[in-house]
Amino acid sequence: MNTDEQTHDDIADIIQTLPLDRWHRDQGARMVSFAGYSMPIQYEGILAEHLWTRESAGLFDVSHMGQLLVSGPTNEGGVDVALETLMPGDFINLGVDRMRYSLLLDDEGGILDDLMVTRRAGDFYLVVNGATKADDIGHLHEHLPEELTLNHLDDHALLALQGPKAVDALSRVCPGVEALVFMTAGAFDLAGAPVWISRSGYTGEDGFEISLPAEAAEAVASLLLAQPEVKPVGLGARDSLRLEAGLPLYGHDLDTTTDPAMAGLGFAVPKRRRAEAGFPGAVTVGRHFADGPPRKRIGMILSGRQPAREGALIFDGDTQVGTITSGGFSPSLQVPIAMGYVVPGSAGLNRPLQIEVRGKRLDAVVAPMPFVPHRYVRQGS
Amino acid sequence: MTTYFTEDHEWISVEGGTAIVGITDYAQAQLGDIVFVDLPAPGTTVAKGGDAAVVESVKAASDVFAPVTGTVSEANSALEEDPALVNSAPETDGWFFKLALADPAELEGLMDAAAYKAFCEGL
Fold this sequence. Notes:
The structure holds two protein chains of two kinds. Chain A is α+β, with helices and mostly antiparallel strands. Chain A is built from ten helices and 19 strands. Chain A has helices at about 5-10, 20-25, 45-55, 80-85, 135-145, 165-175, 215-225, 235-245, 270-275, 280-290; strands at about 30-35, 35-40, 55-60, 65-70, 100-105, 110-120, 125-130, 150, 155-160, 185-190, 195-200, 205-215, 230, 295-300, 315, 320-330, 335-340, 350-355, 360-365. By secondary structure, chain B is α+β, with helices and mostly antiparallel strands. Helices cover about 20% and strands about 35% of the residues of chain B. In chain B, strands 1-2-3-9-8-5 form a six-stranded antiparallel beta sheet. A three-stranded antiparallel beta sheet of chain B has the order 4-6-7. Chain B is globular, with a radius of gyration of 13 Å.
């Protein structure tokens, strides 16, 4: 038997630790290396942690992610205009304390990273993927106007509290957060520390993400864990939760060979930005939106119980039409689910496909995403 | 019946020329929640140290190797219905397959229970 952990151990000497490293070990976490950091993959078990998050509230440490601040010489500073030269989102019309999902694109429209962008009163706050943050910082330094300032908040931790009871737990210790709605944020005081909280996440559930000074991380994590709704949840369940939510994972479902049209992320490229074509790769991306992309990201549900993993080939009849980019067993649905890219002719809903796993062809069907409905708390709901 | 263990965390219980193979409690704990086991069909020949089965947990697929060379005589069909048996009873009801041994001398290099326990404690 071999497991992923054993390969990770070989490179243990270059693995960095995060502020909550000891805290995770005290909670019984099994640690693995991820994005260059030692991270908790699970505590009591992926299945239990996954289901707990769907019914109550899970506390995730995502401090490996890059937290960046972009500011200008004045409060206005033209940061929004500058960000629009690198990403296809609408930042000019983004209100204060509101956030958008966006994409850093290369000159062909290939996806360099996906990220969250929040306009705050004096700056823009960006959260990028851990594995890509060094490249992202280099990219931003290279391409943003010199008069803008880029700060990497590497002295900050990032926690996520996710699940239908996250609001009960967090509002008890941080009154006021219940007034936030999905994709809005604000400054709060939590356990005596100044924190930045957004109503957002990567599980498909209602929940919050909490940016805080590293030295406050243990106290805040312990305070949240002391709430009866909350259990610690590791990276294993984070992955199965986001897969059920149909959310792509950078480096797997998104990379420089994919663009926003192929990835089905049209909501991240609003009409004005398509019309103005002022972002990297806009011509190619615009053509893919207008005429259809050469391949499309789809969801699939497999027959039987055998999961298909990243790299498995997808067949439509005798023809290979694509490749799986994420796959696993859905703890909520109790069936194997997968995400992948196929040619447009094979991407229609309910189309029967086959996935090759270890020489066997498993039956699958194209399914709508999310696999498990999102339960965000939106404005007016 | 004598039970031997491998450094890859398989166990093999031998009686005469036949054996039962599974993965150890240590292995199932490392793998986490098992959702599918891909077992070799009866009649399959497996080679010592070669691929014999695949265990799928929520997060990953892991290979299970044959502790010794032989021919598979039966796969544990109970695992089709309830793969979590590997978590709850790895060294009893959660067995993987039965094997007709090709060369019982291959067992000599494997660990007994005490040696395996010491091996795991050293990991």
